[in-house]
Specification:
Layout lengths: L4 E4 L7 E6 L18 H4 L2 E6 L3 E4 L5 E4 L15 H20 L7 E6 L1 H12 L6 E5 L6 H7 L9 E6 L7 H13 L4 E6 L7 H14 L2
Parallel strand pairs: 2-3, 2-6, 6-7, 7-8, 8-9
Antiparallel strand pairs: 1-3, 4-5
């Protein structure tokens, strides 16, 4: 079993799993505090898995080594994207899904969630995953390797609900990138629930309430 993650077990036997990826420079503990803010109707039978990203040098940060799902070379996130890093992290994500399947959880009861870089990886991996998932949560993020999406998406997840949300004043990943990704997904006929909030590159209480409502529908 991959132990490179924070795992929060439910009070009852798990019938669902949420795999939640953090942003650049953070770790699996970053979103741990969100679990008590989600209704017990969800958390009492849902396992939460918060993986730690691999340590890697980040070009835009002067080559400093930190937890990251892929390298970032410049402020324009769509230029010179780290294809290898993105695909390596997609495989890490798939390994966590496989682990949950081995533990008896159907993919139809697995939600992929992520913030910032983590959100980019769950969008990238979720759209290409060959078995139907319960849903994808993409927070303060964008669709990476967007030019390859239409040729690589898997029909298994064409109907999978997607929750996308972004801060109106995000200085890290501009709202323009997120809106462009949202538009592209809608043109591909994905079921995207879009939200924007009066915040920067963060998560707020209103967003958590909306996520909880959405999760209740996905994991009912």
């Amino acid at each position: 079993m991959n132990t490179n993650a924070v795992v929060i077990e439910p009070t009852n036997p798990a019938t669902a799993s949420i795999i939640w990826l953090h942003g650049l420079g953070a770790n699996g503990h970053d979103f741990e505090p969100i679990v008590p803010q989600i209704p017990e109707t969800i958390t009492r039978q849902t396992r939460f898995i918060f993986p730690h990203a691999p340590q890697r040098p980040i070009t835009i940060n002067g080559g400093m080594v930190m937890p990251g799902w892929y390298d970032v070379t410049e402020m324009d996130l769509t230029a010179r994207q780290d294809i290898q890093g993105t695909r390596e992290s997609e495989q890490i994500l798939c390994n966590y899904v496989a682990q949950e399947i081995e533990r008896g959880i159907s993919t139809k009861r697995i939600v992929l969630a992520g913030f910032s870089q983590g959100g980019a990886i769950v969008l990238h991996g979720g759209l290409r995953y060959p078995l139907p998932l319960a849903g994808i949560i993409a927070l303060s993020t964008y669709l990476p390797l967007a030019d390859t999406v239409s040729s690589e998406i898997h029909t298994a997840n064409r109907q999978t609900p997607i929750f996308m949300a972004h801060g109106l004043y995000d200085p890290v990943i501009s709202l323009v990138h997120a809106e462009r990704s949202h538009t592209q997904l809608e043109k591909l006929d994905y079921n995207v629930e879009w939200h924007s909030y009066n915040m920067q590159h963060s998560v707020n209480a209103e967003e958590i309430a909306d996520i909880s409502h959405w999760l209740s529908a996905c994991l009912s």
